[in-house]
Structure formats: C-alpha cells, structure tokens
Amino acid sequence: MFFGTELDLLIVCFIVVLGRIVDMSLATMRTVFTVKNKPQIAAPIGFIEAFFWFLIVKAALDYTIKNPVVDTILLAVAYSLGFALGTFLGGIISKKFVKSKIHVQIVLSSKNDEVIKELKEKGFGQTVITAKGAHKNTETYMVFVETDSNKLTELRSIINTMDEKAFVSVTESKSVYNGFFGGNARK
Length: 187
Hints:
Layout: H1 5-35, H2 39-66, H3 73-97, E1 101-107, H4 113-121, E2 127-132, E3 139-148, H5 152-162, E4 167-172, E5 179-181, E6 184-186
Antiparallel strand pairs: 1-3, 1-4, 2-3, 5-6
C-alpha cells in the first residue's frame, strides 16, 4: 500500500498522463489545421495546447522540487505515455472531424460500364477517359473522382466489389472548385 510521497507520485503521474493526452491530441489537430491552411482554427487550439503543457510541466516540477530524493523515472514514463497516447488519439480525432477533399484515380481492369453506372447512382461525380494498358494493350477506363475523405470507404467498397483488380490511387486535394460533388454542381 502507498503512503505519502509514493501516493502523491502516482497521482502526479496520472495527472501528467491525462494532461499529455489532451495536450498532444490538441497538438496533432493543430498541426493538421495548420497544414490545411486554417490558421484561424489552429491558433486557438495552439493556445489551449500550450496552456495544458504548462500546467503539466508545472505539476511535475512542483512535485520534483518538493521531493528531491524521489526517483522521477515514473514521471518521465508518464510524460512519454501521455505523449504517445495523445498523438494516437489526436490522429483518430483529426481523421473523424477534419474533413478534406480527396482525388481518387481508378484504372479499371477492363472497359466496364457497370462500374461507371454504379458510381453515378451512388452520387460520385466522375470523369471517365478511355485508356490503353501498357502491358496488355487493351482498352480500359480511367476514372477520376473528387469526393469527401469520409466517403472513401464507400467508394473503395464499390470498386472492390465490382472490379477487384482495379488500380486505385488516392491523394488529398489542396483545392477544389467547380464540377460535380455528390449531387451538387459547384460553380
């Protein structure tokens, strides 16, 4: 059973882990918003992140100053664990809540009009080009789709179901304007 400084150390370690989870989740989201050129969102997140970091470091230093003979390796482990868990959680949160446009390039294994029809029925705007494979020298379709990142799973499911040999490349779009997006023509 813990008494005195040992219990205090565990409490401080718990506070450090929780604080770092919050701090690093915010740091990850701030970084994503910065990369997406949204400084008006990144700046307030950065303020809260720095505030949490300060409180965490203050708690750890206060404990260390009051208990100089205690080995603080547990504080270092707590700090590192919170950092890792916060980075992981921040990535999950960012993926769920930070939306982006993606560009999907699909090279079908054959000239399959059913895939094109299915994508259209599911609301995916697309540009279709007839292409010729370099290895087989047969005609096929190359399909370009711009969509929201949260619709990628649905799009992948359609492609995998209808043409499991299709070549698919996904990139994040920096900027998208005009065209057809999920039933809405943009001007």
